[in-house]
Specification:
alpha+beta, four-stranded antiparallel β-sheet, elongated, 5 helices, three-stranded mixed β-sheet
Length: about 210
Amino acid sequence: MNLDQFGSLIEGNQIDVSLPELAHPTFSKDEARLALRNGASAALCRGPSMGFPVHNCHVEIRVTQYDGSTTLTTLAAGARVLTNKLLASMDVGLQEPIMLVDIAVDESHLGPVMNDVTGNRGGQVVSLEDVETTIVSGVTYYRPSDAVQKPSQGASNRVIKAKVPLREMIGYNSALRALTSGRGTFVMALDAFETMTPYAMKQLKKGL
């Protein structure tokens, strides 16, 4: 049987719908496609991992024929149920935003700040540079509202470039000031999304 195929990209998920060649007597193919797509999309919006939305998933829905009881509601409900079953059978992980952080500190506070980034916050130091050689143009950075003042001349002469999970950057402005006697500043921008470690997922579940 020839099937009418329809694909769409929704919130980073590919949803492909195949319908019978013959149209249903009470609704159009466009209506059927929309119902199936909405059903699958509803399941993807609340995934199996703590209800977070699913991304980068490919769903194929094939309707080979209609019967007398087929309605748009049953199509949408069926697509949602089948998509949920598909997700439940998959090994799905959680992803979190990783920030690219530039931290300007003076030499005397370099060690404590690096230890805090790599130890307490689970970050990774990418490089250590002089302030004069650090170029941040071309990247949109976020700077906390209470950290707009630049350190005095000669006070901050090293820049730690690191990748740190966003969840670990909450309240970092206060922590950095405490570590550097108020002299440290930082800017950050989104770098990528990475799969959370089992330990991080456990901590997240505790907080929910």
